[in-house]
Amino acid sequence: MDCYTCVRTGDPEGLPPRESIAGDEHWRVAHAFGSALPGWLVLLPRRHVTAVAELTDAEAAGLGTWQVRLSRALAEVTGCAKTYVAQFAEAEGFAHVHFHVVPRSPDQPEELRGPRVFGLLGKDAAAAVGPEEMDRLAVRLRAALAAG
C-alpha cells in the first residue's frame, strides 16, 4: 500500500512520541511534520479511509470528542486562543483522511490566520519544528489529555 499513514499506523509500538501522542481503537494523534508551528496536530483514522463519508458510526462518534479534547489540550499546553480544524486529504501519498488541529496563538500575525495558516506547513527541515521539540510537546499533550 502506498499510504504513508497506514504504513506508520501499522507499528504503533515503534512510533516516537510525536507520532503517537494519543489515540484509541479508531484514532491516532500525531504532530504534523514539516510544520513551522509547534503543536500542529493531525487526527488520523487507524484504518484506511479516503473520504469522511466512509467513517463508521463509531469512528464518527469519536471524531468530535477527539477534536474538542485536542483543542483543550493545545490551549493548556501552547496557550493558543483557539484551534482551527480542517480536512482535505488531497496530497500525493496522503489521501488517507486526516484532520488538522492547528493552534492559533493570540498574537499570530493576520497574514497567517484562517486558511492562510497553511503557509506554515510543508516547510523544509530548517524551518520546521524539530523532532525533539515535537516529542517534548507530545509528552506535555499526553499529560494534559490524561488529566482532562
UniProtKB/TrEMBL annotation:
Residues 38-111 form the HIT domain. This is HIT domain-containing protein. A motif (Histidine triad motif) lies at residues 96-100. InterPro entries: Histidine_triad_HIT, HIT-like, HIT-like_sf. It comes from the Bacteria.
